[in-house]
Specification:
With 737 residues, this protein is an alpha+beta fold. Among the domains are: 42-80 and 88-164, PH-domain like; 196-523, no CATH class. It is 33% helix and 11% strand. Strands 4-3-2-1-8-7-5-6 form an eight-stranded antiparallel β-sheet, covered by helices on one side. Strands 11-12-14-13 form a four-stranded mixed β-sheet. The protein has a two-stranded antiparallel ribbon with strand order 9-10. Strand 1 and strand 2 (61-69) form a beta hairpin. It is globular. The model is unreliable at 1-6, 17-24, 539-593 and 699-737 (pLDDT under 50). Its main location: cytoplasm. This is Myotubularin-related protein 12. Pfam families: 3-PAP, Myotub-related.
Length: 737
């Protein structure tokens, strides 16, 4: 206590937390049980578990029950049984507090305020559990108030069922497929490419049936278990050639350009061979190349992707570093890393890998479009980087691949049927970390760059891409849970392919009605999509000539902004940077492109964009951005309340709703109802109540400012309100046009 003559000290503590925010909900009294899917079984549970809403020192949270099933980890509180404030974009399979076992990345325990990675058998059980998810969510559970026996059961159960190696048939995929009713949506227009007719139709669509043929040589997998049952090869390739080396050394058709040039891929021969075998294989390849390369009319360029692109290990390392920037435990960590955001981001090398992959795809496009040259992509198995490049080339050159059904058909053709090892690359079975690599995520990141650069060219939205990336970890769909068509077929029918009946009825991820109702599916469709006009025969030749442009890289590089103080000069750009509007400084390329490529790239970007023609991404450093919706959607500090692109989307959807209401009135005159239509538009009356990362993060996820000195926040606030400032990089009015 101060003496009577002493001067009272000036208060130095400033609270940024209101009394309401530190209120802790009492433990729930009524029994809350998890909603179980067909085939789902409850394995263990713990009551009186405290889930932190946000780990920022305020201890805000709620009590509930933590359960583990053979499908998911779920936290159940009294809100779990309430239908009040139900989000507009609700997943029918995965709830807000649900984590599928395949989505668990790492689990940490907290012992006396120290974090420790949890694996295997535990001698001592933690007082707090932190679960990091592959979709970048972070869950913090306090176990101090839970019974000791329940803590042992739930922690051991979660670690065992989510982290230990397992057999393929132990996945929930099989439990669900054998128990769920077979009532899939028949409106799915995705081409599955599991029949010979599908391949012939694709050849006819791309006018590739003149030089290429669909073959059934691999029926019964007599050629190779890695190849699909049906695929396309050059007409001159014989069945004997296909059989000779189990499909290796055979150019497999991916797609044909309008000028007749084709994109092909090939599984390479092993590099370490004895001399006689190498000579035989070289002679075999020379004969194959001669069947494709027929100068001067048909030229062939080969590209070994294993030497021209980063290795899978480099891709995995870069992504591991990159995702750590977004797995934020608490508000303090977020602001601490934000001070050195640019250097941390650049050091991961993830954006540079995206740039290199897009650049490689543009090089292939130039060969096909400008040089009329066949391109043969070569890789050890032709099922990883070949899939990425071939898919990107088709998205850039074929407007059909930019529709939702076309893009889904592309993924089926190049990835699912093409034999990409989703099971190993996603490490769904936790067998080997060495095989894990985010190859499919790399493709989605590259496609997102195109979507955000040319929104009217795509029928789907970035929300569609985000949901598709989340679906990698939902084991009720077979799409992303097998390494090959052979593995799926043999698993479905038992060890023998001769068995006709199957006990499993696998779902495909392309049936979006399984995850979302019609109202939520509207967020997957782009309301600004510029639909392709009906072809005019009189202008067909002119339109085709526009495709054949001489295009190229910008000759003047964008200068990086000089380093400035974080709190004053860079404050006005903070929100823009964090949402990817100007992510990273220019990434200098050590491999300068050749002049022809520079001309091709530069010329294309100097002309108006044809949204149904060729699309080339801008690949200068500042143009390669962070996919904000996917990577920042769970971080409250990264949200703009009532701002961002959602403001534009809300206005568009309101306008569409008004048009629909007028349509209803017109239809009523003819006694026609349009309720229940899949294109129904959700109501977004008050965009100010939404955040910039809607529909995944809502305004209710409030962020508490860290306890920085008051003078620092005053400096920030002296600048204009960050949320209300005009964004020099984003012109909403121009986007609307």
């Amino acid at each position: 206590m101060l003496g009577s003559g002493a001067k009272a000290a000036k208060p130095s503590f400033v609270s940024y937390i209101s009394p309401e925010e530190i209120h802790i909900k009492e433990p729930i009294e009524k029994e809350v049980n998890p909603h179980l899917l067909p085939g789902e079984q409850l394995l263990c549970e713990a009551s009186t578990v405290y889930k932190y809403i946000q780990e920022d020192g305020s201890n805000r949270g709620t009590y509930g029950k933590l359960v583990c099933t053979n499908f998911k980890i779920a936290f159940l509180d009294e809100d779990s049984t309430s239908d009040d404030n139900e989000p507009q974009f609700k997943n029918k399979i995965i709830g807000e507090n649900d984590i599928t076992l395949q989505c668990v990345d790492q689990i940490y325990g907290v012992y006396d305020e120290k974090k420790k990675l949890l694996t295997g058998q535990l001698r001592k059980y933690p007082e707090k559990l932190i679960i990091y998810c592959k979709d970048l969510r972070v869950f913090n559970f306090c176990l101090r108030y839970t019974k000791e026996e329940e803590v042992k059961r739930i922690v051991s159960g979660i670690i065992h069922h989510s982290q230990t190696p397992k057999l393929l048939k132990r996945l929930f995929l099989f439990s669900y497929a054998s128990a769920a009713p077979n009532n899939t949506d028949g409106r799915n227009q995705t081409v599955m490419f599991d029949t010979l007719e599908d391949w012939r139709d694709e050849l006819e669509r791309t006018k590739g049936d003149v030089q290429y043929k669909a073959v059934s040589t691999n029926e019964g997998y007599k050629v190779s278990e890695k190849l699909p049952l049906y695929f396309v090869v050059p007409i001159c390739v014989s069945e004997e050639s296909i059989l000779k080396y189990e499909g290796r050394g055979i150019p497999i058709w991916c797609w044909s350009c309008h000028n007749g040039a084709a994109l092909l891929k090939m599984s390479a021969f092993p590099k370490e061979q004895d001399d006689s075998t190498s000579q035989m294989q070289k002679a075999f390849l020379d004969g194959i190349y001669r069947t494709i390369r027929k100068p001067p009319y048909e030229l062939l360029k080969t590209d070994d992707l294993s030497s021209s692109l980063p290795s899978l290990q480099e891709i995995q390392t870069a992504y591991t570093r990159f995702k750590q920037l977004f797995l934020i435990d608490n508000s303090t960590d977020f602001w601490a890393t934000d001070v050195k955001w640019f250097s941390l981001l650049e050091s991961t090398n993830w954006l540079e890998i995206i740039r290199r992959v897009l650049k490689k795809a543009i090089e292939v496009v130039e060969c096909l479009e400008r040089q009329h040259t066949n391109v043969l992509l070569i890789e050890e198995s032709a099922t990883d980087l070949c899939c990425v490049i071939s898919s990107l080339v088709q998205v850039m050159m074929d407007s059909y691949s930019r529709t939702k059904s076309g893009f889904q058909s592309l993924i089926q053709k190049e990835w699912v049927i093409g034999g990409h090892g989703f099971l190993d690359r996603c490490n769904h079975l936790h067998r080997s970390d060495k095989e894990e690599a985010p190859v499919f995520l790399l493709l989605l990141n590259c496609v997102w760059q195109l979507v955000q650069q040319y929104p009217p060219a795509f029928e789907f939205t970035e929300t569609y891409l985000t949901v598709l990336s989340d679906s990698l970890y939902v084991p009720i769909f077979s799409t992303f849970f097998f390494n090959s068509q052979h593995q799926k077929d043999t698993t479905m029918t038992g060890e023998s392919l001769k068995t006709q009946s199957s006990p499993f009825r696998f779902l495909t991820v392309w049936d979006w009605s399984v995850q979302f109702d019609p109202k939520a599916q509207a967020f997957l469709n782009n309301p600004l999509y510029a639909e392709k006009p009906k072809p005019d025969k009189s202008q067909r030749k002119t339109a085709r000539f526009k495709h054949q442009r001489q295009l190229s890289l910008p000759l003047t590089q964008t200068k990086s902004s000089p380093k400035r103080g974080f709190f004053r000069e860079e404050t006005d750009h903070l929100i823009k940077n964090i949402l990817g509007k100007r992510i990273g400084k220019f990434i200098n390329s050590s491999d300068e492109p050749p002049n022809s490529f520079r001309e091709f790239y530069d010329s294309w970007h100097s002309k108006p964009v044809d949204y149904h023609g060729l699309l080339l991404p801008r690949i200068d450093g500042p143009e390669i951005k962070v996919w904000a919706q996917r990577y920042l959607r769970w971080i409250p500090e990264a949200q703009l309340h009532g701002g961002g692109t959602i403001a534009t989307a809300a206005k568009i959807l309101d306008l569409m709703e008004e048009v629909q209401n007028l349509q209803v009135k017109m239809d009523e005159e003819h006694s026609q109802a349009i309720s229940g239509d899949i294109h129904a538009v959700p109501m977004l009356r008050n965009s100010a109540r939404l955040s910039s990362l809607f529909p995944f993060a809502l305004l209710q996820r409030q962020s508490v400012k860290p306890a920085l000195p008051t003078s620092t926040w005053k400096d920030l606030e002296d600048e204009d309100d960050l949320v209300k400032r005009d964004d020099e990089f984003v012109d909403l009015s121009s986007d609307m046009l």
